[in-house]
Amino acid sequence: MLLPEKCVPFPNFGRSGVYLFYLWGSIFLPMKYHYILLVALLFCKINVAAAQEGCTDPQALNFNALAVMNNGSCMYPATTYIPVLKSTLPGSLNEISGLVYANGTWWAHNDSGNSNQFQEINPATGSVIRTVTLDNVTNRDWEDVAAVNDTLFIGDFGNNGNNRTDLGVYTVPIEAIQGTSNPSVPASSYTFTNYSYPDQSDFSAQPQDSTVFDCEAMLFASNRLHLFSKNHRDYTTSHYTVNPLTGETTKKGTLDIGGMITGADISPDGKVIALVGYNLRGLPAVFCWFLWDWPAGTDDYFQGNKRRIEFGSALISGQVESIAFSGNRSGYIANENTTYNGIPLVAQGIRTFDCSQWIPEVSETSEPLFARERLRVHPNPATEETAIFWEEGFTPLTLRLFTANGKLIQKTDEPESGMSIRSESGIHFLVVQWNDGFFTTKCIVFE
Predict the structure, then answer these.
(1) Residues 158, 137: Cα–Cα separation, whole Å
(2) Residue 158's Cα: distance from chain center in Å?
(3) For 44, 57, 202, 392, which has the most beta carbons within 10 A of its beta carbon?
(4) What are the distances in angstroms from CA 51 to CA 17, 209, 244, 327?
(5) Is 372 helix (H, G, I), strand (E, B) or coil?
(6) What is the 3-state secondary structure (H, E, C) of 395-438?
């Protein structure tokens, strides 16, 4: 009687637990042995689900080429990127705290101690196009603005003393602010929704360096407002979702970010979240956390890839208070007028950022159907040089070659089939991007 000598997991089934097997030798068995074969198969089944989970980003220090399911464990090397100054803002926005792109227009506003107004601006020039007044309200502490289609959300949730009980968000239809040069929005045209944090029970005033329930960052996604707290005490941020109609608030999780978050936005394609902030312990520094590839169909943003990019010294970039995407992987950050002991350091301004070198346009970890059949790398292993081929009609968007520690050593857009890649000896990872996903394969080069 022949029994199965090897079990093979069927590719792309993930957690399904479906497996195929083959036999070395004939599978034509007498009927009386069929039940023995079935029992043997039960013992032969191999659970590979755990092996299929891991870090799926080739740029990560702990990239696992065998992983097909991202478990949010990626760790990245320290990376510094200096945003480029685009424009200087006028004095009317010297305490800019919110910035967003909505319905073809850029909107900005100041924070506490300023008027109940927000501005339409041109970030490329820094000019103010018009000023809008929100009637019959006080700017207690407007800290961020978010948008969806034809609606703005202005967050009045700055809470430096940890003791506010009137936190909320203004919902302003853009159609209510069109048609005049400097319009006023009447109270009948906007709404205000109160909310409270479900995990806050102590509303006594606290020193600012002990504040936990401050907030300066908000975005809109999946029919919810998403708030990210500014924790002065622990240098963490907590993610809350808020129903903009009812104020119902849910805590999603907490992330140790090594600083205070002051602005948030989500990319137009809905695949990347940017959380900008600063660290005042030691030399003041600005940073941005980029989040992507969280579990599909969820808003568990902290369960995907999380990469911190240092934006340099606050003595150069100023006190950055807001961030907004202009494209899927690029956008602006804005800083307020920054002084130290009355000495001017950095004027209020807008700078550009681009995160495409770390997060491709196709940011999921999905492998296109039949990807392995589309593409061939030959020879592999190779000596110094190997070639890449693909079937007609399946030209990749981009090829990227990384070293084993995640360093990008070659990038080619719209490559030609049969193109050669050269690299030093060692293990490398080739990432091939199509419109419907990307495919990663290991390349070995010998001396």
Answers:
(1) 15
(2) 23
(3) 57
(4) 12, 44, 41, 36
(5) helix
(6) CCCEEEEEECCCCEEEEEECCCCCEEEECCCEEEEEEEEECCEE
Put the strands of the sheet holding 272-279 in their side by side order: 260-266, 272-279, 285-292, 305-313
297 & 375 share domain: no
Q: Rounded CA gap, 373 and 255, in Å?
A: 40
Q: How far apart are CA 423 and CA 417, in angstroms?
A: 18
Q: How far apart are CA 398 and CA 59, in angstroms?
A: 15
Percent of the chain surpassing pLDDT 90: 64
| Whole-angstrom distance, CA of residue 348 vs CA of residue 136 | 28
pLDDT greater than 80 at residue 383: no
Q: What angle do CA 256, 404, 416 make, to 5 degrees?
A: 115
Distance CA 159, CA 203 (A): 11
Identify whether 428 is part of a domain.
yes
* 95/23 same-domain check: no
pLDDT higher than threshold 80 for residue 417: no
Q: What's the structural domain count of the chain?
A: 3
Query: What's the token pair of residue 167?
Result: 């936190």
**Does residue 361 carry a pLDDT above 80?**
no
pLDDT band at 437 (very low <50, low <70, confident <90, very high): low
Radius of gyration of the chain (CA): 26
Of residues 111, 115, 100, 89, the one with CA closest to residue 159: 111
1 located within any domain: no
CA–CA separation, 353 vs 83, rounded Å?
Answer: 5
Q: How far apart are CA 334 and CA 152, in angstroms?
A: 18
Q: List beta partners, residue 109.
A: 98, 118
305 CB-side CA count, 13 A: 29
Q: In terms of C-beta density within 10 A (0-12 exposed, 13-18 middle, 19 or more buried), how is residue 268 classed?
A: middle
**Helices and strands (H and E) in the chain: how many:** 4, 35
Is residue 96 located within the same domain as residue 39?
A: no
Nearest residue to 123 (alpha-carbon basis) of 385, 324, 339, 355: 324
Kindly report the number of other CB atoms within 10 A of residue 227's CB atom: 31
Handedness of CA 361, 363, 369, 371 (dihedral sign): positive
Min mean pLDDT across 240-244, 350-354, 417-421, 439-443 is at 439-443
Are 56 and 293 in contact by the 8 Å Cβ rule? The answer is: yes
Find where tokens 């009980």 sit. 165
pTM score of the predicted model: 0.75
- The verdict on 396 and 346 lying in the same domain is no
69's CB contacts (< 8 A; 6+ apart) are 14, 15, 52, 53, 54, 56, 365
